[in-house]
Design a protein that fits this description.
Number of helices: 11
Strand order of the largest sheet: 5-4-1-8-9-10-11-12-13
CATH architecture: 3-Layer(aba) Sandwich
Largest sheet: 9 strands, mixed
Order of helices and strands: HEEEHEHEEEHEHEHEHHEEEHHH
Structural class: alpha/beta
Number of strands: 13
Helix content: 25-40%
CATH class: Alpha Beta
Shape: globular
Distance between the termini: 23 Å
CATH superfamily: Ribokinase
Number of domains: 1
Strand content: 15-25%
Length: 329
């Protein structure tokens, strides 16, 4: 555990995975098919995490590929504007395109349409992974989508090996998105392999259940990973809060209830808030709760990366909110 905490404490993360463009109808509440005006923002799970880390005071370098066109350049500029290190963001030509997400800022009858055909970020290669100087960072962070297709899958596993050789802890958000994978069977096998290599694993009850082959076995899967390989496993249960396994600890935490504007971006914001809080020396429980507060902030605003909080936003939210729900273990 001490090695994991020491790595996170550097507050300097190398993040693997996609950056994309988000479109969302404006004003909030508008259906996509009825909208005349759309807003744009940076999206993609790993890009969101990287932006969230930097906005909260951490450092993050994103390792990915973007399309060599105006959309790819938009994503690159957005990353740079947030302060994300883009040294290892590579442009790729041909027919590869950046991810595009069109989603609505509403909960009831929420619609999300994801365009991922020929995704540029899947062109992350083994040579790309080898260009990163891992010892310059404290920890590696990634989300499961990076493993969904080749050459990115092999490159990401190679990056895991290189990061481990450099002494970095691996922080893995399962982030299972069925539309990115060739089959559920492949996804279960590959995500389980990635989980077995990781020091910190974050996922929801459905994702752990998917890895276990049955949602009823998800909690046991999370507990088992904490007993065999991972040092920290966070099992999220939506409005029921989370159960965290660390060493011999089983920690139950609640959520910060809000009236949500949308269901997207919460997991990415949780990861950023959790990691920066741990890096600042807060306890595991405090860090999980601050991650939960960051998630609550994001679901209450339009956009994903644009909605990620700055420290002042987080402190204001915590000061004004009555506190997390009470979860009994």
């Amino acid at each position: 555990m001490q090695g994991v905490l020491a790595g996170i404490a550097q507050n300097n993360f190398v993040v693997l995975g996609r950056a994309g463009m988000d479109f969302f109808p404006d004003p909030p509440g508008t259906k996509t098919e009825e909208s005349e005006t759309f807003r744009a923002g940076l999206g993609g799970s790993s890009a969101n995490i990287a932006a969230g880390l930097v906005k909260l005071g951490g450092k993050a370098a994103l390792v990915t590929s973007v399309s060599d066109d105006s959309v790819g350049r938009y994503c690159l500029k957005q990353l740079q504007d947030y302060g994300v290190n883009c040294t290892h963001v590579k442009s790729v030509g041909g027919e590869f395109r950046n991810s595009l997400a069109v989603y609505e800022s509403r909960v009831n009858d929420h619609q999300s349409v994801i365009y991922r055909n020929g995704a540029a970020d899947f062109q992350f290669t083994i040579p790309d992974a080898e260009e990163v100087v891992y010892k310059d960072f404290g920890a590696l962070v990634t989300a499961g989508t990076v493993f969904a297709a080749e050459p990115s899958r092999s490159a990401a596993f190679h990056a895991f090996d290189l990061a481990k050789a450099a002494g970095l802890p691996i922080i893995f958000d399962i982030d299972y998105r069925p539309y990115s994978w060739p089959s559920a069977e492949v996804a279960a096998e590959v995500l389980s392999r990635a989980g077995a290599m990781s020091d910190v694993i974050v996922g929801n009850d459905e994702e752990f259940g998917f890895m276990a082959g049955d949602i009823k076995k998800g909690l046991g899967k999370a507990r088992g990973l904490s007993q065999t390989s991972a040092k920290i496993v966070i099992y999220k249960m939506g409005e029921k809060g989370a159960i965290t396994f660390a060493d011999d600890l089983e920690l139950h935490t609640g959520i910060y209830s809000v009236i949500p504007l949308k269901p997207t971006g919460a997991g990415d914001s949780f990861m950023a808030g959790f990691l920066v809080s741990m890096a600042q020396g807060l306890s595991l429980e405090q860090s999980i709760l601050r991650g939960s507060a960051c998630a609550a902030i994001v679901v209450g605003k339009p956009g994903c990366a644009p909605a990620m909080p700055y420290p002042g936003d987080l402190e204001t939210f915590l000061a004004q909110h009555p506190g997390p729900s009470d979860i009994k273990g």
